[in-house]
Amino acid sequence: MSDYQITCCSTVDLDPATFERLDLKYVPFTFHLDGKDYFDDYGKSMPIKDFYDAMRNGSVPTTSQVSLGRYLDFWRPFLEAGQNILHLCLSSGISGSYNAAVLAAGEINSEYKNAKVVVIDSLCASSGYGLLMTKLAQKRDAGASFEEIVDYATKTRLEVQHWFFPSELTYLVRGGRVSKTSGLIGGALHICPLMNVDHKGQLIPRQKIRGKKRVMQAQIEMMKAHAKGGLDYDDLVYICNSDCMDDANYLKELVFKTFPRVKDVVIYSIGTVIGAHTGPGTLGLFFMGDERVD
Predict the structure, then answer these.
(1) pLDDT (tens digit per residue) in 221-273
(2) How much is the pLDDT for 1?
(3) What is the mean pLDDT of the chain?
(4) Distance between the two ends of the chain, CA-based, in angstroms?
(5) Which of these, 101, 116, 244, 251, is most buried using a 10 Å CB contact count?
(6) Confidence band (pLDDT; 50, 70, 90) for 169?
(7) Which residues contact 181 (CB under 8 A, 6 or more apart)?
């Protein structure tokens, strides 16, 4: 057993098999839907397809971040086992979970003298956050010490490129992220806004593109421009989707066609917390690239 544990929040949008393979542990966010509360736990509390079908039928979920108390309960077993903890949070540009985690770490570090919790703002989201966690697990397995893994996380987090789009603006309108007028016009013209996560970890619209295949090609162009090694990129690629697997598979084919040295392209589902804000029909592309500077 390692002398430290890497932990995260459920909003990394990986899957249970990946958590087990990488020995990563997560603490779940929660969501409220149709009068009930659920954990964001990769389909255990509610199948992910049922969640998106409910949204299509008019349900409007709300989400809650991890509380200070839940962080304390989550971390204590690792500290009791004598392990230090490196915890990465969903970007502070998207959620307040980082602030809660910092407060919890301060409290628990005063309680345990022989182990410690270090909290880092990932400045990442969804499976981009998951890609960063994967890189950390690989670094740990290569023998990195706790101090080295903390340093690596801080230096690497802005190298995770996020490029995604929602194909339906309805859900962004419901959440107040797009005006009703813009949503109506954009929907009528089949506009898919290409967005990314900037250096502050905030979601930023970059282009307005008409049609899904065009915006997927734009994702590929962004990968050409920003991936490490350009067309010779040979690292992992993650794709996330909110119940639009045909689109995810099409994008995967484009990646392999354009970047022949890519090791693997893994498709994950967008979980219930991120999906509550993006809605069904959202597709993200994540890879290691140049540092995000704006």
Answers:
(1) 999 999 999 999 999 999 999 999 999 999 999 999 999 999 899 999 999 99
(2) 60
(3) 92
(4) 39
(5) 101
(6) low
(7) none
Q: Which fold has domain 159-288?
A: Hypothetical Protein Tm841; Chain: A;domain 3 (3.30.1180)
In CATH, the number for domain 4-30+65-157 is: 3.40.50.10440
Q: Are 97 and 65 in contact (CB under 8 A)?
A: yes
Q: Residue 181: which pLDDT band, with cuts at 50, 70 and 90?
A: very low
Distance between CA atoms of 9 and 13, rounded to whole angstroms? 9
Q: Return the H-helix or E-strand segment holding 154.
A: helix 146-156
Per-residue pLDDT at 188 exceeds 90: no
DSSP notation for 222-258: HHHHHBTTGGG--SEEEEEESS-HHHHHHHHHHHHHH
Report how far residue 29's alpha carbon sits from residue 100's, in angstroms, rounded to the nearest whole number.
Answer: 12
CA distance 33 to 48: 13
Provide the residue count of the chain: 294
Sheet holding 36-39, edge to edge: 36-39, 30-33, 62-64
What does each C-alpha distance from 199 to 5, 177, 291 come to in angstroms? Answer: 26, 20, 8
Domain range list for the chain: 4-30+65-157, 159-288
